[in-house]
Amino acid sequence: MSVKVNRRKFLKMLGWGGAGTALAGCDMPTTVTLEEGKEEVVSYLMPEEYVIPGIGVWYASTCTQCEAGCGLHGRVREGRVLKLEGSPDSPINHGNTCMMGQSGVQSHYNPDRITAPMMRKGGNLQAISWEDAMAELSKRVGPSSGVDGKRVGMVTGTISGHQSVLVSELLGQLGSKNHYVHEQINTSVWRTVCRDMLGDETPKLNFDKARVVLSFGADFMGVWGSPVHNMGEYAKFRKGAERGTLVQIEPKMTMTGANADLWLPANPGTEGALALGIANFIIDRGWNLVDVPARIRGTLKQYDLVTVEKVTGIEAEKIKRIASLLSERSPSLVLAGASVENQENGYDSVAAIMLLNLIMGNVGNTIGATAKFAEASMQAKQGGTKDLLLLAKALSDKKLDVLLTYNTNPVFTAPDVLQVQAGLANVGFKVAFSMFPDETTLSADLVLPIHSGMEDWGTHVAAYQPEGAVMGFQQPLMEPIHKDTRGFGDIMLSLLKLRGSDFAKFDDYYSYIQTSLLNMPSSIVTSTGSKEETWNGILQNGIVKTKGTTTPLVPKLVDVRYKPAANNSEYPMHLVPSARLGMWDGRHANIPWIQEAPDQIAKVVWGSWAELHPKKAAELGVKNGDYVRVTSASGSVETQVYVHKGIHPDAIAVPVGQGHEEYGRYAKGRGVNPLKILNPIMEKRTGELATYATRVKVTSVHKTGRLVKMGGSEVQVGRKFVRTISSSVFQRTEKEV
Fold it and tell me: 197-241, pLDDT tens digit by residue?
C-alpha cells in the first residue's frame, strides 16, 4: 500500500517527530497493511501447538493500576489470565509488584464493568451500538460538527506513550488547549522545587548510597513517587554494609513512618521551620559541606533551637540529634512528601527541606540525574490538583461545549465547594471512556466502554526513570471478555479518522504502535536485528530500552522562608486526608481484594475511620468504634474512631478512597470521602490544591459501633513476648484502651 505522506509528518504521527531522523524510502513501511493485526481465531478445542492444557504460559506487559509503569508478567492458561507478577526485566520494579498490581485481575474480571456503549436518552443512560455511538461523537468532534474546537476539553489522569500522542493530535486538530491532567495523589510541588533548585523535576534518588534518610512526610513505601521501586531501594539501604537509619517526620504515621528508626509528629504545617532549624544548627556547627551565602545564613539565624522547638513542638535535643545524624552519617537523603507539599506554603517548606540536601552535599551523590525519554510527545504528562481547579473554573464559567474524560474521576475527587458535579451540567455534551460506572462516567451523555489493562495494547513512559530511559509495552494477555468493549487507542484513532486525518492510513491501534516501534530512529534506539526479531523481543520483554538524554544537575540555592499558618479557634484541628497503598485515590475501591486488605496501620477493612490520638480521644470522651463528626467550613462527615498514638494530638486523619456514591457493588455507599469537605485553599507558588491545609472541629455524635479490623491488642502492656497468658492477666490488661 503506497501512501503519499511527508516523511517528517509521518514520523510526527508515530510520536518520533522530534527525532529529526527520516525513514528510508517514501512509501509506508510494509508492516502497515490491511492485514496487519489480524489473525485466524480458532476454538480452544484446537489450541496453538505450544499451548498445553492445564499449563500456564507467561506473557510480558505493563501494569496500569497506577502511574509508576511497573513491568508485569501475566500467567495465561487456556486463554484466561489467572495471575500477575512483576517482570524481572523491568528497571522500575525488578520483578516485584504491590497489592494494586496483584489485584489487576479482579479489576479485569469485575462483574460491574460496562459492557456496551450507552447514550443518555430521556435522562437515563441506555445501551446503543458502536455505530450509533461513533455517529453521535462525530456530530461533536467530527470535521462537520460545527462545534468550536476551542471549546472542546479533555480531562485525563497521567498519560504517556502513544496514547498521549493521539490525545495531543486530536486536541491539536480541534485547535483546543483544554487538556486537564488530574491526579489526586501527586508530587507536583516536590517536582517544581526540584526543577527550580536542581534543574530536573524528577532526579534519581539513590537510597542505596545514603546512610541516613530524613523524610518529611514522604511515604515513599506507600503512595509517594514510585512505591515498588522505592521499596526495593529501601531494602538496599537497610541491607548495606552499614544499616541505614530512617527518620520520618509527619503528622500521621504512614507505612514508611512505621518502619522508621525515629518517628516524630511535628506540629502540622511546621515542617519547613523544622528543616530551617536543622539547617541553622548544622551551619552554626560548621558541619555543612557546601558553602551558604550570607543572605541565607541571615535568614537561618532566625530559626534557633528555642524558636523552632516552640513552633514545631519537637524538642531541641531531638533537633540536635537529627542534625548530628545528617553530619555523622553522611551522605544523606532528605525528602518531602504530601503533608508538606499540600500546605498553603508548601513550596517554601519543600524548598527549605531541599536546602538540607544542598548544604550536605547530597546532590550528585544520593541525588543524581535521570535519563529522560528522548521524545517529549511521549513523556508522561503528570497530573496534579491544579488542573482540577482549572477544570472547575472552566465548568463554572461555561467555557466548554464538549468534554471528554478518561482514566480520572473528578466528580469523586473534587471538594464539594468546587461544584464539579453541578458544573458538568453547563457542558452540552460529555463523553466518558471508562471501564466502570463511577461518578464521572454516570454524569456523561455518552459512555464508551474500554478494554481492561489485560485486553489492550499500549505504550507507557514512566515519569520516574531510575535506570535509563525505557518505554513499557502493554499487550493483551487474553481476548476481551466483553465483545462490545474497545481499546482506548483504537477509539482515539477512530476519532482522528473521523476528521479525515493521515491516521486513516493505519488499520488499527495495534498496527499504529507496531509501525512506530519498528521504525524508531537510530537516535532513539539501536536495533541489533531484523524488524521481526525486534518486534518479538518487545513482545517477550515488555520493555523498549532507549538511549535517552541526561542533563547534569545544577544545584541552586534559593532564598528560603517560612510563614506559620494562623491559629483558628473555630476549627482547631488539622485534617489529614491520608492516602494509602491499595485504595490509592479511590480508584481501587471497587476491588474486593483491596477492600479486605487491612490498612497498614489501623488494620481496618471494608470501611472508613478517623484516627485520633488518645489524648484528644479522652478530651472528646470517645473510644474505638465511637462515631465523631468532622466539620470544616465546607462540610462535614461522620465516621468511627480509631484511637492510637501514631498521630499528632492536634490532627485527625480520615483515609481517602471510600465514600463512593457510585462505582459498583463493592464501592458504592461504603464509608466517607474526606476530600468532599476540603476548603478551596491553593498552594501559593504552584496553584495546587492545598489538601492538607483544611482546619476542622471534631465532636462526638454519641453513637457507637463495632470497628471492623484485623488483629487484637496493639500494645504489650509492659510484658515481654510470651507464648501463653493467664485469663486473669488477659482480663486485666487486654481491655480496650
Answer: 999 999 999 999 999 999 999 999 999 999 999 999 999 999 877
Yes or no: is domain 7-109+453-484+506-546 CATH 3.40.50.150? no
**Can you tell me the distance from the alpha carbon of 260 to that of 277, in angstroms, rounded to the nearest whole number?**
21
Q: Identify residue 207 by its one-letter amino acid code.
A: F
pLDDT at 50 over 70: no
* Residue listed under C-alpha cell 460491574: 112
Rounded mean pLDDT, 558-576: 88
Angle between helices 488-498 and 509-518 (to 10 degrees): 100
Reported as a single tens digit per residue, the pLDDT across 239-276 is 877 899 999 999 999 999 999 999 999 999 999 999 99
Question: Which fold, 118-183+383-449?
Answer: Rossmann fold (3.40.50)
C-alpha cell at 163: 496514547
User: According to CATH, what is the number of the domain 573-704?
Assistant: 2.40.40.20
Residues of the chain with CATH 3.40.50.740: 118-183+383-449
How many CA atoms does the CB half-sphere of 331 hold within 13 Å? 19
Q: Is 124 helix (H, G, I), strand (E, B) or coil?
A: strand
DSSP string, 171-203: HHHHT--EEEEB-SS--HHHHHHHHHHHS-SS-
The span from the CA of 211 to the CA of 596, in Å, is 36
Q: What is the DSSP string of 522-557?
A: TTT----S-HHHHHHHHHHH-EEE---EE-------
Cβ atoms within 10 Å, residue 705: 10
Retrieve residue 599's grid coordinates.
490498612
Nearest 5 degrees, angle CA 509-CA 510-CA 515? 100
CATH 3.40.50.2000 fits 188-371, yes or no: no
**125 within 8 A of 118, measured Cβ to Cβ:** yes
